[in-house]
Amino acid sequence: DRNIKIAPSILAANFANFGAECEAIEAQGADWVHVDVMDGHFVPNITFGPATCAAIRKHIKGVMDVHLMIAPVDPYIDAFAQAGADVITAHVEAGPHIHRTLQAIRATGAKAGVALNPGTPADAVAELLDLTDLICVMTVNPGFGGQKFIDMSNKIRALRAMIGDRPVHIEIDGGVDVNTAPLVAQSGADVLVAGSAVFRGGSVSAPEGYGENIRNI
Ligand code: DX5
Ligand code: ZN
Fold it and tell me: Could you say which residues bind a divalent metal cation here (predicted)?
């Protein structure tokens, strides 16, 4: 009854060819494009910012799902909304004012997402359920692709119960592949992010490789 969306993460894509990579994964069945923004402060890695998001927006027909692994978040919300983000997700751990951050994201017209690191309990979003459109459950500690999956099944089930019949997505992010996808889908997730499982072994010159990886998940 829940249709599962696949959101390949371009963190695992060819950084010299983002436009072609986004077109290739969409042509091969990606539902959303997951865009990992890292600032080298909230996470120990740096990727790219609003300018890159604006550039790749032109190559994405569907949902551009921007995952902000940055702190502070508020000063940059407008820039990512201007860049064309459809979903803007902030980490609950990024600062003390997540409630205001989600309000600010929604005020731009974008969907508001809140992300939980593995160590953060489901209850951290108890007061946010009417302010958010997506809860991103990290199944790795953020910062890198290709890490080992951390089982968060109990948290996912708890969140699905808390959400009730609200229109809130549960997105799983980190270590999702053919083996872990069924587990998280059964627990109540409906958006699956996958970086290495989609891009590894695929190639923009042979995009069907991406298609096979996406379909397998
Ligand atoms: C990690 C990112 C994830 C990551 C997923 O900080 O938020 O989106 O790119 O990559 P895989 O699927 O390879 O774990
Ligand atoms: Zn991510």
Answer: 34, 36, 67, 173
